[in-house]
Design brief:
- By secondary structure, this protein is of the alpha/beta class.
- The chain is built from seven helices and four strands.
- The chain has a four-stranded mixed beta sheet with strand order 1-2-4-3, with helices on both faces.
- It is found in: Cytoplasm.
Amino acid sequence: MQLDIDIEDWPAGEWPDLAERAAEAVAAVAPVLANPRLVVSVLFTSDEEVHALNREWRGRDKPTNVLSFPMLERIDLVHLSLDGPPEMLGDIALAHATCAREAEAKDLPLEHHAAHLIVHGLFHLAGHDHEISEADADAMEALEVKALALMGIANPYTAIDAA
């Protein structure tokens, strides 16, 4: 998977490296995402930008931590050959102030929370959806926990449950 990373309104940091490591971890857990033809746009941006995207594309007039915009159906992703031109999997946008506020509330480094949200967004692009059912939410959560563990990041759901 190739990443097209754009950073606006985030503090200086190793955000491109973090996104690349998150993508590698997700591909290790979900091999369908290891296809070299896949391209994902990752935007590190402001709450205002994510709010506008959320209002325009999801009809929700509020900021959120991460948005995912898939461009491939799950069936097409699963059957995508390894040969051919680049194929856009989708876009992910992360809102800095919301991510920072959530990380602070959970007593987590911003880098760990941002990694979790990138992983979460990539699984959404791959067709996983935690809003369908509790079983789907559990399955997606398990994949996220495995990917984050590969990055050396603790289970964020355990931290939530313990709070």
